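Quarterly update, task 2.4: zinc ion-bound model.
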Amino acid sequence: MSDMLALTFDRSREDWATSTGLVKERVPVPTLIDPQDGQDRSQCIIKVKYAGFCGSDRGIWWRKAFGDMILGSLDEEGRDKRVVGHELLGEIVEVGARVGPKYNLKPGDIVSTESHIICGACYQCRMGDTHVCARDKIIGISMDGCFAEYIKLPAKSLWPTDLSKIRPEVAAVQEPFGNAVHACSATDLRGKTVAILGTGTIGLFAVLIARGMGASKVIGVEVNPHHVAMAKALGCDEVLTPALPPPDRPWASDPALRERVLELTDGVGVDVAMEMAGFNSSFNNALKVVRRGGQVVAFGVKNGDAQIEDFHRVVMNGVRIHGIVGRQIFRTWEITRNLLENTSNGIQEAIWRVILNEGRGTLVDIRDWERASFERMISDHPKVVIRFAG
Ligand SMILES: [Zn+2]
Ligand SMILES: [Zn+2]
């Protein structure tokens, strides 16, 4: 076989600034050019089974994010076309000569992948902080991705997955689930009161994980009624709806939200506030609902400057702020596997039943993929999975 179905952005066809969406087309199948020598010795060809559509893919779809990284990497490669997608479950079908001896992987193995391909040589990598590698490449953004029937990936990034323990549609979203695991591992949540501000996909995962890690109370903060209902179904004790900030002060927190959180925490505030919406007002809400000496996990992102209200309060209350990006490789993946394979915590079942709605409206086969209906799917559901094979 020499070509395959893929979802792509092509700058010779679409202008980044004026277009939206992705195009389904046939592109060449990636190959190991010399499996015995050079870089390809440590690479694999993977037949994609399922691929998750991420929040960052939404950013690409609407051209709101990652334009610089996609266009810049295409410049470097002297190419026009990028295959998008980075949340993967697939089967290894071909390996370079070093893959077996060095990584213990072989054709037939089922794998997911870490989406940040780290350099292994920069200061951060050498210090073990590989999630902030200074020279990483991101699958589906700065190299070709997994919205395709086949993908070529380095063996060092692959994560073997046992499909007798994790259903494939859930196994395909281990990477974004891992984002939430990383965010929930930034502090010790055992016995703690936790507020999760923004229950989009990662926030919903975080509700499950905070529960699974032993938080004593989980308070959601969300405006979208569909997501409010899901956050409750996944185990939030309360889901509060914040007032939106006035247009002339878009950064402003909601004093009534702070009052409600204080009521729910014996007047103390939460031990941990996790900001997962990315709005300036939401970050200030996180700073206002956290207790003195508490911790804020900053996960949601937005480009540009932000304004901090009552900055002196952050210092004088001894609040600690953690910026969280990506996953710790592979520590986060180990915890992800344990949380998903241990079915007694109900997490895997809840992802399938509530977040993936048992596949109804959330699962599409690439052969049936059609732009307009897919756009409706990604606006109606927090997580959509594309089936490529089996
Ligand atoms: Zn993602
Ligand atoms: Zn590095």
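Highlight for this quarter: The longest strand covers residues 43-53.
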